[in-house]
Amino acid sequence: MRIAIGITGASGAIYARRLLERLHGGRHELHVTLTDYGKLVWQDELGENFRHWMETMDWSGEGGNSRMVVHSVNDLFAEPSWGMKKFDAYLVVPCSAKTMSSIACGIADNLVTRFGDVALKEKRPLVLLLREAPLHELHLERSLALARAGAIVLPASPGFYLKPKTLDDLVEFMVDKVLSYLPEPIPGPEK
Ligand SMILES: Cc1cc2nc3c(=O)[nH]c(=O)nc-3n(C[C@H](O)[C@H](O)[C@H](O)COP(=O)(O)O)c2cc1C
């Protein structure tokens, strides 16, 4: 699959890292972009720079692995920005209230908000793993507008019915949810 992934400055960089790990072995083409705060929160919460982490894995697309292309968030010439360049899904993980609100208002001023706009206009899968609490009235109104426009607004709120024992279990729960909206199944995590 061809998947666009935006990583924003909401808390929960660990969700983005696990999402990429889960997609690593699948021969996918991943187009990834981090907002400025996406990079800062990744560094703050995971204690390492996104680029350094990325270099610990093979993202060349060879040997059965997925290929990752990292775009500048300011590059609106990048492929996810174009409606004519079809992606199977557009994921924002984690999604800040700011990016969610921008997409809801059609403010397509960076690559993440632009690809959100593209997904909505082209009627393609758009999943926003929204992380903010509490949600005020405008967040709720904008989330409703997005849901009506076809987006999946997925609160980063793991369930406890699978009896999670570790932080990784909670993260896996949310990442599984995100992956469940892709048009093709993704294998479960290695145990
Ligand atoms: C450590 C840290 C944690 C943050 N956590 C959240 C959060 O959970 N949800 C949120 O909506 N914004 C959060 N923010 C604020 C966003 O980073 C800020 O609104 C930023 O402008 C979002 O821009 P972006 O969507 O372009 O990344 C956080 C900021 C920092 C520094």
Strand elements, count: 6
Biggest β-sheet: strands ordered side by side in the sheet: 3-2-1-4-5-6
Q: In which range does the helix fraction lie?
A: 25-40%
N-to-C terminal Cα separation, in Å? 24 Å
Hetero groups in this structure are:
flavin mononucleotide
Q: What's the shape? A: globular
What's the number of helices?
Answer: 7
Beta fraction of the residues? Answer: 15-25%
How many discrete structural domains?
1
**CATH fold title:** Rossmann fold
Task: Give average pLDDT, whole number.
Answer: 97
Largest sheet: 6 strands, parallel
- What structural category do the secondary elements indicate? alpha/beta
Rounded Rg = 15 Å
CATH architecture: 3-Layer(aba) Sandwich
CATH class category: Alpha Beta
Sequence-ordered SSE layout with sheet pairings:
Elements: E1 2-7, H1 13-24, E2 29-34, H2 36-46, H3 50-54, E3 67-71, E4 89-95, H4 97-104, H5 111-121, E5 126-130, H6 137-149, E6 152-155, H7 167-179
Parallel strand pairs: 1-2, 1-4, 2-3, 4-5, 5-6
Helix pairs in contact: 1-7, 4-5, 4-6
Bound molecules: flavin mononucleotide.
Task: Give your account of this protein's structure.
Helix content is 38%, strand content 17%. The chain is of the alpha/beta class and 191 residues long. The chain has a single domain, classed as Rossmann fold, CATH 3.40.50.1950. A six-stranded parallel beta sheet has the order 3-2-1-4-5-6, with helices on both faces. Helix 1 crosses helix 7, helix 4 crosses helix 5 and helix 4 packs across helix 6. The chain is globular. Bound molecules: flavin mononucleotide (FMN). Flavin mononucleotide (FMN) binds next to helix 2 and helix 4.
